[in-house]
Amino acid sequence: MAKARKVPAIIDNPMSFCPGCGHGIVIRLIAECLEELEQDQNLIFALGVGCSSLLGGGLVTDRLHCPHGRASAVATGMKRVQPENTIVAYQGDGDAYSIGIAETINAAYRNENFTMVAINNTNYGMTGGQMSWTTMPGQVTTTSPLGRDCEITGNPLKFPELVASQFDVAFAARGAVTSPKNINKLKKYIKNGLEAQINGEGYSVIEVLSPCPTNWKLSPLNSMKRIEEELIPYYPLGVFKERKEN
Amino acid sequence: MAKARKVPAIIDNPMSFCPGCGHGIVIRLIAECLEELEQDQNLIFALGVGCSSLLGGGLVTDRLHCPHGRASAVATGMKRVQPENTIVAYQGDGDAYSIGIAETINAAYRNENFTMVAINNTNYGMTGGQMSWTTMPGQVTTTSPLGRDCEITGNPLKFPELVASQFDVAFAARGAVTSPKNINKLKKYIKNGLEAQINGEGYSVIEVLSPCPTNWKLSPLNSMKRIEEELIPYYPLGVFKERKEN
Amino acid sequence: MREIVYAGFGGQGVLTSGLVMSQVAIFKGQNATWIPSYGSAMRGGTANCTVKYGKDTIYNPAQEDPDLLLAMNGPSFEMFYPMVKSGGIILVNSDMVDCDVNVRDDVKVYKLACSTLAQEIKQPRGANIIAAAAIIKLAGDFSMEDGIQGMNDMFRKKGKEKFEAANMKAFECGFNAV
Amino acid sequence: MREIVYAGFGGQGVLTSGLVMSQVAIFKGQNATWIPSYGSAMRGGTANCTVKYGKDTIYNPAQEDPDLLLAMNGPSFEMFYPMVKSGGIILVNSDMVDCDVNVRDDVKVYKLACSTLAQEIKQPRGANIIAAAAIIKLAGDFSMEDGIQGMNDMFRKKGKEKFEAANMKAFECGFNAV
Amino acid sequence: MGDMIKGNIAIAEAAVRAGIKLYAGYPITPSTEIMEYLSKRLPEVGASFVQAESELAGINMVMGAAACGVRALTASSGPGISLKQEGISCISDEELACVVINVVRYGNGLGTLYSAQCDYHRETRGGGNGDYRCIVLCPGSIQEAVDLMATAYELAEKYRIVTVMMTEGALGQMMEPCELPDFIEPKKHPWGFDGKYTYKKIGIFDRNSMDEAVELNKKHEAIKAEEQRWEEEGLEDADYVFVAFGLPGRSVQGAVKELRAEGHKVGFIRPITTWPFPEKAFENVNKDVKGLISVEANATGQLIDDVALTIKKVIKDRNVPTFCLPCVYGIPSMKFTKEGLHKIISGEIKEAY
Amino acid sequence: MGDMIKGNIAIAEAAVRAGIKLYAGYPITPSTEIMEYLSKRLPEVGASFVQAESELAGINMVMGAAACGVRALTASSGPGISLKQEGISCISDEELACVVINVVRYGNGLGTLYSAQCDYHRETRGGGNGDYRCIVLCPGSIQEAVDLMATAYELAEKYRIVTVMMTEGALGQMMEPCELPDFIEPKKHPWGFDGKYTYKKIGIFDRNSMDEAVELNKKHEAIKAEEQRWEEEGLEDADYVFVAFGLPGRSVQGAVKELRAEGHKVGFIRPITTWPFPEKAFENVNKDVKGLISVEANATGQLIDDVALTIKKVIKDRNVPTFCLPCVYGIPSMKFTKEGLHKIISGEIKEAY
Amino acid sequence: MDVITVKEERCKECGLCIAHCPNEALSFSDRLNSAGYKPVQVDDAKCIKCGICYTMCPDGVYEISHNGESGGED
Amino acid sequence: MDVITVKEERCKECGLCIAHCPNEALSFSDRLNSAGYKPVQVDDAKCIKCGICYTMCPDGVYEISHNGESGGED
Ligand SMILES: Cc1ncc(C[n+]2csc(CCOP(=O)(O)OP(=O)(O)O)c2C)c(N)n1
Ligand SMILES: Cc1ncc(C[n+]2csc(CCOP(=O)(O)OP(=O)(O)O)c2C)c(N)n1
Ligand code: SF4
Ligand code: SF4
Ligand code: SF4
Ligand code: SF4
Ligand code: SF4
Ligand code: SF4
Ligand SMILES: [Mg+2]
Ligand SMILES: [Mg+2]
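^ inputs. structure came back:
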């Protein structure tokens, strides 16, 4: 029953995320999929600004630090001129859905042929835990000190659902990193997204519910519990847009 | 059976739109509604950049020329500090849906309490007829010289539908100016949008299918025919989000 | 160096009138510049362009001291007639412009019913070519043959040779009318 | 003017240690500045701040020539000990820093087991106050009473008076330990 | 003497007391505490706090509020201010009044979090399209920043212009004692929209750019004549005059004090407004001065341009050399400034202009 | 001599011939013909055309393509270029190569469609955050613009910097004869991404800003030493030297010719690069020159700053007065320039610096 | 008495009113207005004052007054 | 033979692996690594080499080699 498991070479470096941060799990999954799809030597990352930026030091691969929120536009430029490379935009919820919503939506709208992985940790982690567009109702953050009031700030955004229902994209799903089971499912989603790209099917997005223990001021384990108990009921896991060929 | 009809004072000026342009009809309808709701002396327009800008010279009311695409953000600032005024963002399809998509979507997302009227004439009229995000498949424009190829540019955007299905807004509808009947319906939509705002129900959007004879290179009458025959089948008229109290 | 202003309503084709002139000059081995005026108002209003040509370098391509003016409508005439150089020439489209030929005593004003002529020769859209040809004649730098060849060359390069006969007819009409 | 650097791991509360010092100076009517260092790396790493105080205007609030250094962990000690002014004082948290007290012969190095002391007085989170108090003692500008009053004043203004007794205990412990 | 307070918090509270009715912005280190503080504080005083989707949306919300004649604020840093350039140019063009705080951080592009003054050129000359200028206030202490907050709005409103409060990362993050100002209840300006079209505006296509250019220059001249602010010392007999603003300016003051004590005839000008640049201070400079020296926290030297241009203008009868001491980021130590002088005297550092 | 061709079209075709692989941009008058032309032309040559959702997205797409080491282009005007400032600063910081065309139109904010040079300060000093500079090319004719297009890319790639092709509305809209250059097949640069991590980059948090500042200054110095471009005439004995670029520069050349013919000892410098500014040209100026005069199409005078700074630097032994003749927008007529000289000689116009 | 008024100067000859007039009461005149368009003219005998021309006109050419009053919904 | 390796220096003491190990084979050690964390230790007797710890660990601490080979899906 044992499986040989080794962190893929492109990510086999000490990472400077906080203890228990979900970023570390997700990036490893992406690297595993790329390795399995033999794309790990054929790939360019468009990194968002946020704790994603910490990958700048850890990833052994072509990667560009994009301006905050613009990774999907940058990825568009990359893919258009280098269609044979696999392009992954790796962005946080603030990066992809708030400041970058125009570029993010437009990549989906045009069905650009790359894969976006969005780390939804319900806040701006890097800058110390401000409200983001995925912050839960009532959640206390440094810019929603009395708890998020959705009456004036809007309701948490569900991007994969929006994309799946409004645009003609290749694949859209949401996963989580709370348990081995969820992690394995998430990996399948990521792989599907990458395969869609390799096959030229178009835009794929995988959102990940991911803990930010530091800013949530919860232990890593309680952060996972929060995702299970609070986030998943609001942000359902699963595939919102299935690939056509599957 | 006769109705007394007079162009409302706030708009009773020669306008510099091209012959047969829909902008002239829509702005008159807005003015009529405002007059009927007694808001014509209590109102601020946030004008988009596009042929909307031509209203700068014609409207006898508080109005601001906003940076291209940003009228919904500007309107947000206005309404937040002056909630007792009626605020209308008047924008073209390029302004609202392309360059301004972030600000437009975010106003809907936060359910900001103002009314947006979007003139969808399937191109950038002011700058000479480039493709916009509502340009029809196959439509020839100066930047889609061989006809719009939706495979690489995406499919025409349906904003009221997107807003109605994704966000918790007060009112969303689409009308057209092709016939007296459609014009009268459109006026009801606009009135509903404004009433929603006056009652504090939140964001309202009314999109209008509107002819741009100059850039379509069609006569005013044939432009109306194009809307009836080509546009309405793709962009259905009607209310996509009904007001709650109605 | 010669400087000519072509002005009229947006739809009257004055930009093309000017282009024909510049093209004829180039065709004859001279230098030329063509510059349209365009301002903040996009809809309606007047259109105009300035053409300069000559054997020497053209420094400033913009309007400075026009030797000739083509005024295809009233507002253009009003706007530009005071700017014409002393000793210069104004050609007005008398179908649209109702002016006093003695509006300035240091300038010669010619009237030509461009639209009427165009109707007469059954080239309803040819008024601007008629005017262009008349201006070339009045400027006196090129022969009718040069003018026609230069013009044909230009339309051929634009892939519009099918209008050649019509354009030539209009050109001849205009050239001979002043 | 006195200049003191407080340095340690992110979680060790050195920024507060420095703040106590600056607050005591203000409380006694002096000028003071407190400036944290913050760089590109947000996660992990060391934290430090520089406090300056004195009766005169403080021009440059940033680190220049520290008279004293508090080094709560090894990396901080390594980084800052060379910068201390000749004749200056270094206080190291001997629970974390294992150093030679004679690392520099022109500087006096004191060792204090801040974390151990904190455990001993049953204030496990009080190591930074202990260190702060020890530094105040070593600097020699303020009495223990002044120090305690200044500190209490600061926490009261932050609405944290409930920790007053505990903080005082830690302060006394640190002040008396060097 | 007030309590120890963090620069960003003090500035935010000073804005509240200056009567702002709206803050709209997006977080970015080292400016974020301003918005974090206001997210709690503004609702308490009945004003609006909007966490905008981006810096760009933020400045446009400010434009909307400013158009209504109320006091509105946004704050950011580095790339965030870059994103506001179109908006700032538009607000300037519409002659609306508002305040933008730039808590400057070092670096091109994404940049760093280090404290710096690398946006000098952009803030003093406008990074948006066109010929507009913003009034630029550069406090050297938290107290000065706080005291300038109401001034920032008064100037913005007096001239219908954008005021940029250009602080530095370090000023935002440091603490020192500070007395907070009293509350002001600003009047709504007559040109603010009220929905009743009491203030008539002409449409954008009806404007006359030639006339407006004349007006713009007049306005700039008036601001230059009236609103220069600076601190100076020792100019009358100085062989060398340092010019530095903000925290470097303050550090240079200390260095000058020490240099004087050591017998060097030096003086300083600390511009508080960097636009309008304090030309009047330069008129007080010893006519036999041997050189002017800018000390600045950036890589290339930016302030030096204004120093050179201004001394050229003011001392007409000869060409006074101007030197630049850029320290890249942080606050230059007093030692740095003093050593710089010696290198200039010895000829090791050549003049920039 | 080539055929009559519109400036924007000629420039777009020249870009195609320089081997661009991607254009991404958003329409705005008077630059739009560039993108309209390329929407048809690029697919013909197997390159990508993307109509971006905004100018901001456009520059970021260009950044993506540039990161892959291929030639990419965007063009815009007025507020559209303002929206690209963050992106330009980021591309500069990443040391990628690309070309941005600014077909300058007059005005702050939404502005006008008039031809102008009002973005001079911004383009030559950077409107984004930080200390970066772009190489700025300012053609005076369609032929020169076309000839500079390949140069623009070569410079961008040689120095890994952004080149701004700063044209003017009038140059984009006018026609004159022009010979188009030959096709180039540019090599992909080794630092372009290929998916194989052949070019190693360090992460953003591992960079050393102090070292990079030194490198940045070295690069700037190298560009200043090597890449100044200008046209000049009559400098050796000139009493007055005009400085003007672009179409005003060309008009000034004509005025100088006439003034010379009338017996005035005048000369001109027409900067083709405005950054690096052609300091070397100033070294050729008559040491006894009475004044330098900038002629520029903006409201406030911008180029004048560089003229003053440069002459201050070059002629060290005295303070040469510098005058400014701003014409707001359009192309200054030769008459305007000539009258300006007379007003300067008569003392009616005072020196700016 | 209902009266229909035409602001000829504003007409841009687009023809939308003519196409929708239920009673064929509208046509283009032979005059040119100052903008160069041939403005509409109403055949009062045919006009039933239904207001459709007002509704369709983008340029505010029409006004219909009802017993001397004009404006508003009835 | 399956072998589990622990890169102690990378461990940040988050505890996610411990919580999910199906056989309670993991615990924190008493040592401090250079970042100041107490890294995990494996009780080899209890460990069934299921790889769950690898799956959960955000910091690449674990490697499990299978008959001397490591990596990839099986
Ligand atoms: C233009 C710009 N605005 C703001 C910032 C500051 N900033 C950096 S990261 C970040 C938020 C990141 O949040 P998210 O994308 O959710 O990523 P996380 O850190 O949570 O993974 C912000 C606001 C910036 N770098 N650039
Ligand atoms: C930042 C910026 N980018 C581009 C432009 C140029 N521009 C002016 S209007 C316009 C398009 C308008 O199209 P739309 O919004 O559909 O309005 P329409 O004219 O069709 O009614 C564009 C691209 C601008 N003014 N500002
Ligand atoms: S701040 Fe949050 S998202 Fe960022 S590294 Fe720490 S835990 Fe992860
Ligand atoms: S260009 Fe089109 S939208 Fe603009 S005024 Fe003319 S017809 Fe109307
Ligand atoms: S009112 Fe009715 S009947 Fe009369 S002209 Fe108008 S549309 Fe025709
Ligand atoms: S609809 Fe109006 S503008 Fe058009 S033809 Fe009729 S009256 Fe004239
Ligand atoms: S491999 Fe499985 S049993 Fe062994 S330590 Fe890891 S989780 Fe526990
Ligand atoms: S999951 Fe990894 S980092 Fe966390 S405790 Fe286990 S081994 Fe250490
Ligand atoms: Mg996040
Ligand atoms: Mg449109």
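The pocket of iron/sulfur cluster (ligand 3) is lined by residues A 17-18, 21, 23, 51, 121, 125-126, 212-215; D 43 (CB under 6 Å). The beta strands of chain A are 43-47, 62-65, 86-92, 115-120, 171-176, 204-209, 238-241.
thumbs up if we can close this ticket
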